[in-house]
Specification:
Number of strands: 9
Shape: globular
Number of helices: 11
Distance between the termini: 79 Å
Oligomer: single chain
Largest sheet: 9 strands, mixed
């Protein structure tokens, strides 16, 4: 009898423990809205891509996905917010070359480690930059652009999507490699920059290809060269920097999705699966291609390794450029 009573009590206790513990342990992620931080102002390629993927991610994850723009300090403000956020998967980063591979090397003291402070979850794609000029600039090729800049009596202003953007660093590399007198004019994203570029108060820019193609097609801007290894279907008549004789300027901006370090593996797996399924949709592939973004599937470890290599490659180039974040 005593043994049977002890057995019943033990069974009841185990059932009670299971009932109490189950909700906390078995509660499926996500249970609330997910925030995706974009490190540039609205209108740039990162922002456009985040909002393009937003509906599909909401559908796959079953919760609202909120896109928040947090530009500034070479994209480090938004990235640092994600790095310091709880590792629960509810705060994600639309990661890109600027806050991961470039800006950390422009600071005397970096607020986060571009590799160790994050879990780099999934690759979205990559997009090149383009050297683009106002039609008033009498240059149609890279050599002509160099000659025109050298002929000016005062430094030529060039714009980018912000301090620490890949356009900024490419511009500084171009300046140093050819001994050019140029002054960087940073903007809080490509949208604000185009106001001055189209108006002619800014002579030229090094900017993501995506948002410049419409202006190039309308003749409002002239594309000089793209920084990709091969010509882009989005702008087939624009030569690559290598074709133009400037192979050291080859560079592409990657886009991905990252989270704070320490996010549980099951959450990482869910986000990776959801994003890959959305990016693989034919309509999304077409939209990305139309934006000049090329993509291919990567596993989560492959993407993490890719980011580590990007950081290792860009670090020395950024340091050599002398570019700094004030």
């Amino acid at each position: 009898m005593t043994t049977r009573r002890h057995l019943l009590l033990a069974t009841a206790a185990a059932s009670l423990f299971t009932a109490v513990a189950a909700p906390a342990h078995a509660q499926a992620w996500p249970q609330k809205p997910i925030k995706v931080i974009v490190t540039f102002a609205p209108g740039g390629s990162s922002d456009i891509v985040a909002r393009l993927l937003q509906p599909g991610l909401q559908e796959k994850l079953g919760q609202p996905v909120i896109v928040e723009n947090k530009p500034g300090a070479g994209s480090t403000i938004g990235a640092n917010e994600v790095a310091k956020a709880p590792a629960d998967g509810y705060t994600l980063l639309l990661s890109n070359t600027a806050p991961i591979s470039i800006s950390p090397f422009m600071l005397d003291k970096t607020p986060y480690d571009p590799v160790k402070s994050f879990t780099h979850i999934a690759f979205i794609g990559s997009v090149p930059n383009v050297f683009v000029v106002h039609p008033g600039v009498p240059a149609k090729t890279m050599p002509e652009l160099v000659s025109w800049i050298k002929a000016q009596t005062t430094p030529v202003n060039y714009g980018s999507g912000g301090v620490g953007s890949i356009g900024h660093i490419i511009g500084e590399m171009f300046k140093q490699q050819h001994g050019l007198k140029m002054e960087h004019v940073p903007y809080r994203g490509s949208g604000p920059m185009h106001t001055d570029l189209l108006g002619g108060t800014l002579q030229f820019a090094v900017d993501t290809l995506t948002q410049n193609v419409p202006f190039m097609k309308e003749g409002k801007l002239t594309g000089i060269a793209v920084t990709s290894r091969k010509r882009m279907p989005l702008a087939p008549n624009v030569p690559t920097v290598a074709e133009a004789g400037f192979p050291k300027l080859i560079a592409e901006n990657f886009l991905g999705l990252s989270a704070p370090a320490g996010v549980p593996k099951d959450v990482v797996d869910k986000v990776h699966k959801a994003l890959n399924e959305v990016v693989a949709r034919p309509d999304i592939v077409k939209r990305l291609e139309d934006m000049g973004i090329s993509t291919h599937a990567m596993t989560q470890p492959e993407f993490a390794d890719f980011v580590s290599k990007q950081v290792a490659e860009w670090g020395p180039a950024v340091t050599a450029s002398g570019a700094k974040l004030n």
